[in-house]
Amino acid sequence: MFNNIRVLLANEPSLIGVGIRTTLSVEQKLIIVGEANSSHKIRKLHQKLQPDLIIMDLDLPQFQFPDAIAFLHRNCAKLKILGLMNHNKLALSTLKRNGIAGCVLKSEEPQTLVNASLTVAQGKTWFSKNLVEDYVQSNKGEWNQAENANLTQREQQILRMIARGLDNICIANELSLGHQTIRNYISQIYAKLGLNSRTEAVLWAIKNDVLQHNHDVLARMQCNSTHVVVRN
Questions:
Q1: Residue limits of the Response regulatory domain (predicted)?
Q2: pTM to 2 decimals?
């Protein structure tokens, strides 16, 4: 379990903003400590309030994306950022590249925002299913087919376990192998597939049918506290 999460909202004073506040207020662990409606105010308030999480409306032109986010990461390395936007505003790869740990679409259910906020605050990632599916589709031509990847049976087994949401410790325990051995296997998998993170490994597994239940994995990437846990 974890303590209360101090949240800074970066949005405009509007009906959407009221809806966000109302939605978050149902979860006692989420404490809204302030609101900002411009990049300047975000920088000022984050230094004053020291929030654990910023929920940022990425559709607003007042927020100088990605400069404002780069500033936050430089000055508060532990800060987590959750984006909120309309569909297709920004690609998943763009969000990840700029250090945004998750993104909820405005068309989703209110409880989704609560779940995503709790998950991102724990240092994990949460991306809308639609964003994940778009990412998979856009990268179809860039990934090798599974049969050409030359993964050993053990590497395929570990890849499936990664896609199930297991971290290195759980994988090591299940296979009765050392933690460093698992890290070595994962490094080999990344090298063979041209990947850089656990998130990319999960998406590669889905795209190349390494798993039998891809839709279940996509659901866990949204709804489960162990989805797409990015650890190297």
A1: 6-121
A2: 0.62
